[in-house]
Amino acid sequence: MNDDIRNIVLGLVAAGLSALIGWLARTYRWRRSLRRTQDFFGLPPSSDALLVVNREAGRDGSVKRGDVFALLELAALIKDCGARAQVIWHDEARQGVGEQAEFCVGGPVSNQRMGAHRRSLRPGVAMDTSAEPGPDRGAFRIGTEVYRAEYGTAEYVLLARLTPGEEGRPVFLLCGQLATANQAAARYLARNHRRLARAHRKGAFCLLLKVVDSAAYGPDVVEVVADVTETARTPRPAVEAGAAGAARPACPPPGPPPPGLR
What we know:
It contains seven helices and ten strands. The protein is an alpha/beta fold. It has a seven-stranded mixed beta sheet, with helices on both faces. It starts with a helix and ends in an 18-residue tail after the last helix.
């Protein structure tokens, strides 16, 4: 074998080894990223995830369009983790917290399981659930702050990850003032779950998001208003909680109320 042939063979071998090492490195990074995603969502391969959906007010068996899109976003995440999604109505969910990874979509009026999660696991957050029209209808009360919806301009949604015990599977809450806000929270979670996992290291968190100019941009433009994790886990005083639904500031509503409170 002369030197030219030897150099060609050595070059081919080196190229093959380089390609193999590169493929192994990419595979390792992909698998590590997948494991982190599975850990964050509590979705090991072949596991089951619970999608708890609300019912549109006054229409049995109907789900608002924005909530359907939110479920599709979440179902894609679940599939990417190699898990299976089970969709169930909020009033038919009898599973305990932490037995399965759970994604709960909708406000406390149309989703009673959301209301139970908020009361027991996020006691520092209140939502005005009055059926009477007014500026505070659907407003979030977090600590001393009140976040009122300006429909079509600014709607708010809570995106929370709850960790019921060290061995329990996480529960994700997507609690918005409108169905569009629920969809926006699902899309934000899908796009930013790696960053959220790094920031919170599989722990609990509660973010208040604002959907900006939904009349023009739909659920695509989202701002993080605040990380309200500590405030949300602190129980609100009983007097303040009791007065929250009764006291309404005397100011005109910022816009027409939505057809149905979330």
